[in-house]
Amino acid sequence: MGLLGGCQANSDTNSTINIGSSYIPESIDPVNHGGGPLGRIGVYETLCHVSPTLEIQPQLASDWVVSDDGLTWIFNIRDDVQFHDGTDLTANAVKFSLERAFDSASLLSPLPVEAIEVTDTHEVKITTTKPFAPLPSYLSHRYATIVSPNSMTDSGKFDEPIATGPYVFESWNSGTELVAVKNPDYYDPTPEIDRVVFQGIRDKQTKVFSLESGELDLSLTLPASAMSNLSQTGDVETTLTETSNSRFLAYNVRRPPFDDVRVRQAVNHAINTERIVETVLNGVGSPAVGPFSPSLTDWANESLEPYGYDPERAKNLLEDAGWESTNGESSPRQKDGTSFEIVLRTYTRQPDLKTIAVTIQDQLAAVGIDVEVETTEWAALQEEMQAGETDVSLLSFAFFWVADPDRAMSFYHSEDTQIYTGYDNPDADELIERGRRETEFSTRKELYNELQTIIHRDTPLGMLTYNESISGVHSRVKNFDLHPTKYTFGLQNLRLQ
Asked: 3-state class of 179 per DSSP?
């Protein structure tokens, strides 16, 4: 795929930034999981965007209002924006893009959107089947990227990203590299850096070596060892950013032993999360309490008490649940002739999860639980979880996939969920659904605080750590500050010295 001719930067310039990341998409179609990296480097934009403080702010929409009954949303579209091919951004293009997002198999398709209508050249009306307060947050997701209808072939196939951002798509090699160049006609201040080369490098040590050699200017998601190693390199600085990702255990509550809340609580008490952070993660991250980190968002219920590392409490809970010690803790506990033997599954895409799993294996052995650790591909693990074939799984997810608590809270819904634990609590379901309908922050906050209290007690997910991300930044790169959701790299604000 080639560059759109009118937008190419001066080829004589030396202003190129080379970025290393673990992920380059196998698609560039925003409704087919291809929007993330192209959004992060500034090619794709949406009606709303997520600020560094996780607030939803206007981007291609100048503003919006919702009707009193919560069913009708009016979005006013900026009238000073052009697509990368020089055509104007209009309400028709917005309707085209959003209908693709809501009609496709993307994760936006289940949302209660009934109709998208053009009501003026730069005004769009979205009607929902029921009140849905987090709609602007979902419209900030890259699935809802606004692209020109000219991005499609005559047969309706997505062909080339023609969007509105400060950078223009130049080329893409699936899983390997994305290249973009400066958009000289951008409606906001144009970037100083002319060209972006975004490379997919899965091996973390390779990213470190590439930084040290000067092949990369910016490298993301580095291993903890990079902080000490790169500190000896005068030209590279490391930064640590708390992200919206968390690591946690997903218990299968549909079958023994984790159908008993006392057993789930016991495992939480048996795991020393502080030690995991200090020894396995080399101090990168922090022990988690609830689904939201209080230092990232006001949606966190700060009254939640951590389970805390308490092996004796864990043993007492197991005894209460009928799991008796038979030979000290050197042998698995027994209940009705069954040994407490479980499989802890995790996946290969994040290598640190395997190391954490082995540490948990040792810690649970100390309270009489025999754990076998298995790793697999994510797709296979997800299928096993959905079928109810797992005991417990170690996962790492973004709890702010959209910048609204609805995403994370849906993990606890009995039906509308992506994390299949079998948890089914009508009170939790009702709070989740009320939170979706309510538009006032203070009321939603009360609902989500109550919900977090319930799920903290029931613990279908055993929270382990809040994640932090290590970035390596060459000294010639100025003004880089990683977004906590990695929503954008803010390249239009960077300069090269």
From this structure: strand
Architecture of the domain spanning 1-44+165-235+475-497: 3-Layer(aba) Sandwich (3.40)
Cβ count within 10 A of residue 495: 14
Q: Where are the domains of the chain?
A: 1-44+165-235+475-497, 45-152, 243-468
Profile the chain (497 residues) by mean pLDDT over runs of 10 residues. Answer: 44 77 84 88 97 95 96 98 98 97 81 96 97 96 95 92 97 90 95 95 86 92 82 83 95 98 98 97 96 94 97 98 84 95 94 94 97 96 95 93 87 89 96 94 96 98 96 93 92 92
Report the candidate in 478, 487, 491 with the shortest Cα–Cα distance to residue 186: 491
- Residue whose structure tokens are 């973390």: 204
Task: Give the pTM.
Answer: 0.90
Q: According to the CATH classification, is domain 45-152 in 3.40.50.620?
A: no
* 381 contact partners, CB below 8 Å, separation of at least 6: 345, 346, 347, 390, 393
Host H or E run for residue 238: strand 236-251
Domain 243-468 has CATH 2.40.128.130: no
Token digits of residue 378 = 């994510």
Reduced to 3 states (helix: H, G, I; strand: E, B; else coil), residue 48 is strand
